[in-house]
Design goal:
Helix 1 (3-23) packs across helix 3 (143-152) and helix 2 (112-120) crosses helix 6. A hairpin with a 7-residue loop joins strand 14 and strand 15 (202-208). The chain is α+β, with helices and mostly antiparallel strands. The protein has one domain: 2-Layer Sandwich (lpxc deacetylase, domain 1). 27% of the residues lie in helices and 29% in strands. Strands 11, 12, 13, 14, 15, 19 and 20 form a 7-stranded mixed beta sheet that branches. Bound molecules: zinc ion. Zinc ion (ZN) is lined by residues 112-113, 223, 270, 274.
Length: 341
């Protein structure tokens, strides 16, 4: 398929979705899944090897699950053993991304950018089959995942969605870095980073999920690293797939990528992208305000564990009855208006 034909397919899919959105009363009140399955292949950040994955529609209440099809039938593994539920309790490592591991010890790494795309596109349920130990890094952002999900189409399921509402502030801290969740009638994110390199320096960004803005404001922001770090990781046999095609690579005060940055504050926007993906391990969209300074995947996971360990700090709520939403991601804004009466 040529680039122009592919563009035409995407455009016609988007047009159909918009028409459906106008027809569908109650989007955001009800759970969603994909309309069709869709697949893609790319290089894994850790292994540098090609991995293929397919995202399938899934039933209401099943959430996001991963399935290691390369391990099916090996070492006496049953189907349940190769399935890994996206859940903060299953996060086993936060080195170079977020890794999920199930009780059988089977893992899937680098899930955060696809998880952010699911959250940003308002998708509650999906099954992701992959034939390797990690998801492909693609261009280091969530944009290719968003494009895939949009091409597959999103459909509503006849079961009401559950939101995780933050009732009390919870905060975690580690070596001067911190992250917190506070009550808020929406899904808001604020992040601050500070790097000695002046090319990054101090950056802060605030973002609230609403209709379609994840795709334009956050999804294109790529992951980043310094050349000496990338070389060090590679000498340890890590980040073997890391390259200028899937990350912003900095050397001192210069950006090595042709074409430079996608946003002047692309670095902090990517930190918000990661936080959105990490928070979706809560198993539901979060109604609350996430704030962080210099935090990463480890602290994001610690924050969710702290929230769930504080029973009075959270509750599950449904979107108010009779309120219709233009898109799943826009639900929090409508909830706020409903709350104000
Ligand atoms: Zn990332």
């Amino acid at each position: 398929m040529s680039e122009a034909q592919r563009g035409a397919v995407v455009l016609s899919t988007l047009r159909t979705q918009r028409q459906d959105g106008q027809k569908q009363d109650g989007a955001g009140v009800f759970q969603t899944t994909l309309r069709n399955r869709i697949g893609c292949a790319g290089i894994g950040l850790h292994t540098g090897k090609q991995v293929r994955f397919t995202v399938y529609p899934a039933e209401a209440g099943s959430g996001i699950t991963f399935r290691r099809i390369d391990l099916a039938g090996t070492d006496g593994l049953r189907d349940a053993d190769i399935c890994i539920q996206a859940c903060f309790k299953n996060i086993s490592s936060t080195q170079l991304g977020s890794t999920l591991t199930n009780q059988a010890g089977i893992s899937v790494a680098t899930v955060e950018h696809l998880m952010a795309a699911f959250y940003g596109c308002g998708i509650d349920n999906a099954r992701v089959d992959l034939d390797g130990p990690e998801l492909p890094v693609l261009d280091g952002s969530a944009s290719p995942f968003v494009m895939l999900l949009e091409c597959a189409g999103i459909t509503r399921l006849p079961v009401r969605r559950r939101y995780l509402r933050v009732r009390e502030t919870v905060r975690v801290e580690e070596e001067g870095k911190w992250a917190s969740l506070s009550p808020y009638d929406g899904s808001a994110f604020a992040f601050e980073i500070q790097f000695p390199a002046a090319i990054i320096g101090r950056q802060s960004f605030s973002f609230e999920l609403s209709d379609g803005n994840f795709k334009t404001e956050i999804a294109p922001a790529r992951t980043f690293g310094f050349l000496h770090e990338v070389e060090h990781l590679k000498s340890l046999g890590l980040a073997l797939g890391g390259s200028l095609t899937n990350a912003i690579v900095l050397d001192g005060e210069s950006i090595l990528n042709d074409g430079g940055l996608r946003f002047t504050d692309e670095f902090v926007r990517h930190k918000i992208l990661d936080a959105i993906g990490d928070l979706y391990q809560a198993g539901a969209p979060v109604l609350g305000r996430f704030e962080a300074s210099r935090a990463g995947h480890g602290l994001n996971n610690k924050l969710l564990r702290a929230l769930f360990n504080t029973p009075q700090a959270w509750e599950y709520v449904e979107a108010p009855q009779g309120v219709s939403y233009p898109s799943p991601a826009a639900a929090p804004a409508r909830l706020r208006r409903a709350a104000r009466g």
